[in-house]
Amino acid sequence: MQTLHVDLGERSYPIHIGRGLLNQPELILPHLKRKQVAIVTNTTVAPLYLEKLAQPLRDAGVKVIPIILPDGEAYKNSATLNLIYDALLENRCERSTTVIALGGGVIGDLTGYAAATYLRGVPFIQVPTTLLSQVDSSVGGKTGINHPLGKNMIGAFYQPQVVLADIDTLSTLPERELSAGLAEVIKYGLIRDEPFFAWQESNMQKLLALDTEAMSYAIYRSCENKAEVVAADERESGERALLNLGHTFGHAIENAMGYGVWLHGEAVAAGTMLAADLSRRLGWLSDDDIKRIVAIFTEARLPVHAPALGVERYLDLMGLDKKVVDGQIRLVLQQGIGKSLVSSEYDAQLLRETLAIAA
Ligand SMILES: NC(=O)c1ccc[n+]([C@@H]2O[C@H](COP(=O)([O-])OP(=O)(O)OC[C@H]3O[C@@H](n4cnc5c(N)ncnc54)[C@H](O)[C@@H]3O)[C@@H](O)[C@H]2O)c1
Ligand SMILES: O=C(O)C(=O)C[C@@H](O)[C@H](O)[C@H](O)COP(=O)(O)O
Ligand SMILES: [Zn+2]
Q1: What is a single molecular function from GO for this protein (predicted)?
Q2: Residues lining ligand 1, CB < 6 A?
Q3: What residues flank ligand 2, with Cβ below 6 Å?
Q4: Ordered mean pLDDT values, 10 residues apiece, the chain (359 residues)
């Protein structure tokens, strides 16, 4: 097992990455205020992993309250959030009850927001079971739900007590979901870590084959990048916005296509290609850079063409992004591989030309 730390003063926490972690209650017990936990999961993950996590905790004397939600991005909403509150209240959960998210990013974001708001805040633990949630969503404390008008529009910054990324859980992950997770791995290379990007170019086949050594390294290096950015800018007043590469376009795609039709990672990949295209038009990325980005997404089995929503529809949806200031869309753009910036200083006509190429 490898352990990293997110350094946030009194909100600091460890990220444990390794095999067989679900079956190690000693990684959870020190973080409990009381021997009671509510484990929030979904109908897909529960039959696979709920008992693997719950039974060792029960054996250690912990009362476990399972809360099993419907599965899917379409359920990341206020109605499902209410199901969590209902179950916590029906079981008379107190401020000392710890809420554990067992699942992918949808479960993590929903559960984290429930934990941030139930009784005005109860302790929360992340047990991510998708690649995307192990490399990104379980770390950094962004929690929340979607609104029909926009992705993640309601939420809170709320950090977990500990993150347990058990690599064994990836063995049951559908291939399409594995690829979606790789989109966020690729993101770290593109925004701030060119050597990691180059490593991915040489090791993508190993990652697709779930090679343990390569996968452990990719998760560790991704979390290391995210932990550094979050420690420097927890609430996204500056550098953290770089983690949004491709997301202003991607969230528009997810919303327009209907939540869950395009997976988050797929929309981020297509959105990153649009950001790369605009960066090339600005003279900041070379044709060779573009070729490398297309090649890595293609090898990871991710889309490189965004859907044809129409320029006006893209602009309308992108205008609801959280990075908007004074009505101005701010975009994460690239100045080479491994170098990125947030900018509203682009020619609006160039953005229109980029959006017009969406296939
Ligand atoms: N909070 C953040 O910082 C952050 C970062 C990135 C993404 N997100 C959010 O995360 C969500 C996407 O997360 P995701 O890609 O994990 O999707 P997801 O949570 O929908 O999980 C993908 C699918 O895999 C299933 N699953 C989970 N673990 C499994 C396993 N081990 N074996 C088999 N099936 C398994 C799930 O039930 C689901 O059907 C989006 O809502 C996105 O907005 C949040
Ligand atoms: O942690 C962050 O900061 C990120 O931006 C990570 C993203 O991968 C993630 O999808 C996040 O939820 C997007 O944030 P949002 O503020 O645009 O909703
Ligand atoms: Zn994301």
Answers
A1: 3-dehydroquinate synthase activity
A2: 42, 44-45, 48, 71, 73, 76, 103-107, 109, 129-130, 132-133, 136-137, 140, 142, 152, 169, 172-173, 177, 180, 264-265
A3: 136, 140, 142, 151-152, 184, 236, 240, 243-244, 247, 322
A4: 98 98 98 98 98 98 98 98 98 98 99 98 99 98 98 98 98 98 98 98 98 98 98 97 98 98 98 98 97 98 97 96 93 98 94 92
Distance 142 CA to ligand 2 centre (A): 7
Query: Of residues 236, 254, 255, 280, which has the active-site annotation?
Result: 236
| Binding residue ranges for NAD(+) | 71-76, 105-109, 129-130, 142, 151, 169-172
Residue by residue, what is the 3-state secondary structure of the chain?
CEEEEECCHHHCEEEEEECCHHHCHHHCHHHCCCCEEEEEEECCHHHHHHHHHHHHHHHCCCEEEEEEECCCHHHCCHHHHHHHHHHHHHCCCCCCCEEEEEECHHHHHHHHHHHHHHHHCCCEEEEECCHHHHHHHCCCCEEEEEECCEEEEEEEECCCCCEEEEHHHHHHCCHHHHHHHHHHHHHHHHHHCHHHHHHHHHHHHHHHCCCHHHHHHHHHHHHHHHHHHHHHCCCCCCHHHHHHCCHHHHHHHHHHHCECCECHHHHHHHHHHHHHHHHHHCCCCCHHHHHHHHHHHHHCCCCCCCCCCCHHHHHHHHCCCCCCECCECCEEEECCCCCEEEECCCCHHHHHHHHHCCC
**Which ligand 1 atom lies nearest to the CA of residue 265?**
15
Q: Which ligand is nearest to the CA of 130?
A: 1
pLDDT tens, residue by residue, 211-236: 999 999 999 999 999 999 999 999 99
Catalytic residue among 187, 221, 264, 280, which?
264
Q: Residue 322 catalytic?
A: no
d(CA 220, CA 150): 31
> What domains are there in the chain, each with its CATH number?
2-170 (3.40.50.1970), 175-356 (1.20.1090.10)
Catalytic residue check, 226: yes
The ipTM of this complex is 0.99
